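Example record

One chain of 209 residues, shown exactly as stored in the release files.
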Amino acid sequence: MMLNAISMDNVCLHGFMRQKERVAALTQFRSNLKCTLVATNVAARDDEAVKIFTTVSVTRREQEAQLDNEEFEQRKRNYRVKRWIQAGVDPDMMEEGLEEMRRKRIKAAKKAKLAKIKEVQAQIQAEKPSKEENRLQNDAEDIDTSIKEGLKKVNKKLMKKDDRFKDVIGKITKIKRKADNVKAKKELEESSAKKKKKIKGNKAELNNK
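Predicted structure tokens for this chain:
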């Protein structure tokens, strides 16, 4: 059961098999049609022509649990049918009703799941354009700034090489320096004037006291 559950072809030998089934299973295993044989040492006592490369010992608890579960489901169904008969209801009709309800529940669950998936996809699609627009805008700004900086560098190089612009560049730099010096002097004068005012104010307060 466990090997069948994982889709592994196998044959088995056990005490409840007829001799014909036993011979067929051994023939399949010997001819390599089936690569897995499930048997005990006693069940495989007459097996002559096989080479056993791997022997695996397994426990039965998992398959026993599965069988117990199947038995429980069968007992549950029998009890349900018994209750329906006692209530005077057709068990087949009730089974059909239960199956229909189960199908509706599955359908509703699938529908809700699909709606949730669509909602998530819509949110993702709504977020993508905004991110793409921001990225494109940033890229455009970066391109513009890089172009402007490149043009400035090119213009400076050309102006330095051209004799006509050398004097102009020198004059412009001198004017900028003079303007910066004048601005710095004004700031110093303003700061010194403020300090003098503060000192005078403090002296006046002391004299009043």
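Notes: The domain at 1-58 is CATH 3.40.50.300 (Rossmann fold).
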